[in-house]
């Protein structure tokens, strides 16, 4: 609920008060649909300002079409929602963009709007074009809604760098940078320990940590050892293990 209100406040501040563009980098699978669903709910509650919303990503568009065809896979909350709104990923003023020409046209438009585009870490895809054209304008906002590795373009923007390099050119970061971490799909260490709680620790021979930033893996290993897991291994690149 807090994240939904935060998103609504960012939309109002950017698109209504400042008359700017709200740029939301989002992963094509999951995160884009989650953001669109929340905007759909706000629209149905008559809270969303009367502005255009664009999902500018062919992959996001294709994935959304597949999701629409498999409503039986939605969770219970969404199953209840579609009883009153048959399309949680579509509403008036929302447009999905596949064609490159339409994507380019968004960069020259001065109309306040929301642009959701991939990739989530901002290192590739159409989002880089939207950033290069909008990040230096103070009336715009970049909203980070997912995890970004520290060395990615998204990570540098999230960390508060005042100048970033995009397509070989430096751009001043004058746009507002907003962050909603609660949309991240990554579990924290408490959630991961809870996920493992169903296991019998005495029967686990080894536990491998293979994904994550190096410092985070070391810290998580220490927590797992304190939890009673006997051997927690952080493999090195090209290291081989025989499992028996």
Short note summarizing the structure:
The protein has 244 residues and is of the alpha/beta class. It has helices at residues 2-17, 31-44, 58-68, 76-81, 100-108, 127-134, 153-158, 189-196, 214-227, and strands at residues 21-25, 52-56, 94-97, 113-117, 141-144, 163-166, 169-172, 176-179, 207-208, 232-233. The relative contact order is 0.14.
How many strand units? 10
Q: Level of helix content?
A: 25-40%
Strand order of the largest sheet: 3-2-4-1-5-8
The 3D shape can be described as globular
What's the N-to-C terminus distance? 47 Å
Q: Radius of gyration from the CA trace?
A: 21 Å
> What order do the helices and strands follow?
HEHEHHEHEHEHEEEHEHE
Category from helices, strands and their pairing: alpha/beta
Strand composition percent: 15-25%
The major β-sheet equals: 6 strands, parallel
> So how many helices?
9
Low-confidence stretches: none
User: Overall mean pLDDT score?
Assistant: 93
